[in-house]
Write a structure and sequence with these properties.
The complex is a heterotrimer, with 2 copies of chain A and 1 copy of chain B. Chain A is of the alpha+beta class. Chain A has helices at residues 15-25, 32-39, 43-59, 82-85, 99-111, 116-123, 128-136, 158-164, 182-185, and strands spanning 64-69, 72-77, 114-115, 140-145, 152-156. In chain A, the strands form 2 sheets. Chain A has a 3-stranded antiparallel sheet with strand order 3-5-4. Chain A has a two-stranded antiparallel ribbon with strand order 1-2. In chain B, a hairpin with a 6-residue loop joins strand 2 and strand 3 (244-248). Classes of the chains: A alpha+beta, B mainly alpha.
Chain lengths: 188, 251, 188
């Protein structure tokens, strides 16, 4: 072991063990705040313990990883174990997204909330069918309507963040600096 | 524009795997190993137009109009380069410069999104090899869950199912109110020609009197403008907003 | 760590890591024979590694245990962590189902046995998480796999019938008057 587990307070399981047990039953990323409430410990202590667990799994050559994605923590199988895991996860493999779908997803990610019209303007081609695909795949969702034109607006979902393995859209790489005043040209 | 598109599955323009006009344009520029400059644009213009010509009638004009807009802009730019450059003094030159700058800006913007789209694809690919834990609860916890309250009876449940199974209307902007019912222009033209020709002259009020709807009135007016352009009819109007007389002039 | 992880054969994940990854995603206990087939190693070696893992988890004060039950191996939360897990599981659990859950339930009820993919297609929204909720609440259950695609099929449970107040699915009101051509739709 890379570190000693903290002393169990009053005979109960250690904070580390309690968190591991809870993480075993979650089926979507769980926030630090929720975990802290469940184990009744300060959030900072919980975060530190989670980080310790994540590092520990990595250094101990575990087949799973603990990762912070989409605003929460969740257990994942290690990428290089995929060939073994895939024999059990029958419908886990998602069809790949088309180039068009990836483009629409990128525009929504950076411009959200954004209307289909604006996405179309950026791509120079109608994006309605593609947007529908992304809605069906749970990668984008509706986000109210534009107060001006009344057009439906779209944003990315937490599932999108999870599929990308990032905590929030602020972790997306910066758009190429070449884009001069992107807001002015997208509506052309 | 197509009015029947609602009935058809939505259509995605694909030109040899290009996802849109900007994609095609960037693809051609990359193939020529050029940077995105005016020179690049004028060099790939012919290829761009060749690509969309090859598609012939196989596409929906409504969906593909952006390709044509861009092709037209490119042609303009290319033509301008072939002509001796004078001062930029007339409005056409200015419009051309604006069109060029807008095309550059949009192209660069699109390229930036394309780059991040590639990053997204890479992440999805890499992350797709990690599988999250998502298993049913252990028996001991599942049994703790409170009794479910459905809150609805069989009839409401069936209604809910019916709603779920009802064909979904695609989340599209409703353009029904924009699209007028179709008017058979050829038929309307035949009516107009027949009437004006037979009587030699007729007032617009008389020609449009039996139109039945505003759309048909508009259609007949536009058709008369067409006939005027072709030199088949002449107009007489004594005073502004006065009666418009249409005269058959074609020999 | 109580024991050295076995050498990774030819650069791939170690046997131990591969087994851990598989165990993380399985719902049901998996037999040693199946595990051995998946990782392509002798059953005895797999059993030994599994035992090593189980001992390791216990001695390392992990929040989970690896147990051999019902002819197979599965990860369980550690018994003394149950208070935390229970709090987490019960927290935010509503007696009442969400509208989305009711809708998925309705689709399963009228189309059973049905795959998650088909439910998603009917609703136009990814339904995986909702289906898991329904499984956890005992309203639907697995019902074999689709002979064609191999997708897991779901059906409603007797508990569902009881909660709806009917004694069999044949007592569900017919959809025909509500949906024209009810049998043809839904496959879109």
């Amino acid at each position: 072991m890379t570190e000693e587990p903290p002393e169990p307070p009053g005979g109960g399981p250690s904070l580390r063990a309690a968190l591991e047990a809870v993480l075993l039953v979650v089926d979507e990323p769980v926030s630090e705040v929720v975990l802290a409430q469940v184990v009744e410990r300060p959030t900072e202590e919980v975060v530190q313990t989670l980080r310790g667990l994540a590092c520990g799994y990595a250094s101990e050559d575990r087949g799973f990883e603990l990762r912070a994605v989409a605003g929460g923590w969740r257990l994942y199988t290690r990428a290089d174990c995929a060939p073994y895991v895939e024999r059990f996860v029958l419908d886990g493999q998602q069809a790949r997204l088309t180039q068009a779908a990836l483009e629409v997803l990128a525009v929504v990610a950076y411009r959200q909330p954004v209307s289909r019209g604006r996405v179309t303007a950026v791509r120079g081609v109608n994006s309605d069918a593609v947007m529908r695909t992304l809605l069906n795949r749970g990668l984008v969702e509706e986000s109210g309507t534009d107060p001006e034109g009344g057009a439906v607006l779209y944003r990315t979902t937490p599932y999108f963040l999870e599929r990308l393995g990032i905590s929030g859209v602020e972790e997306l790489p910066p758009l190429a600096p070449l884009v001069p005043d992107a807001d002015a040209v997208g509506d052309g | 524009m197509s009015t029947e598109s609602a009935a058809r599955p939505a259509f995605e323009v694909h030109l040899e795997n290009f996802s849109g006009p900007f994609d095609l344009l960037l693809g051609l520029i990359a193939k020529s190993k050029l940077d995105v400059t005016e020179v690049a644009l004028s060099q790939v213009t012919d290829e761009f137009i060749g690509h969309i010509q090859r598609l012939g009638g196989a596409w929906d004009l409504g969906q593909a109009s952006e390709f044509l807009v861009i092709a037209a802009t490119l042609l303009d730019l290319k033509a301008a380069r072939l002509l001796p450059r004078g001062e930029v003094d007339d409005e056409e030159d200015l419009a051309l410069l604006e069109a060029r700058d807008l095309l550059f800006a949009r192209l660069l913007q699109y390229r930036a999104y394309k780059e991040v789209a590639a990053w997204v694809a890479g992440r999805l690919e890499a992350e797709g090899r990690r599988y999250p834990r998502a298993v049913a609860l252990e028996e001991r916890y599942a049994s703790l869950l409170p009794e479910v309250i459905l809150g609805i009876g069989p009839a409401a449940f069936a209604a809910l199912a019916a709603r779920a199974f009802a064909p979904r209307t695609a989340p599209e902007v409703d353009t029904e109110h924009v699209h007028a019912p179709r008017v058979d222009m050829a038929q309307q033209q035949a009516i107009l020609v027949e009437r004006v020709r037979r009587t030699g002259a007729a007032s617009f009020a008389a020609l449009a009197g039996d139109a039945g709807s505003v759309v048909v009135v508009v259609a007949r007016f536009l058709l008369l403008l067409d006939l005027y352009r072709d030199g088949q009819v002449a107009f007489e109007q004594a005073s502004p907003l006065g009666e418009l007389t249409v005269r058959w002039v074609r020999q």
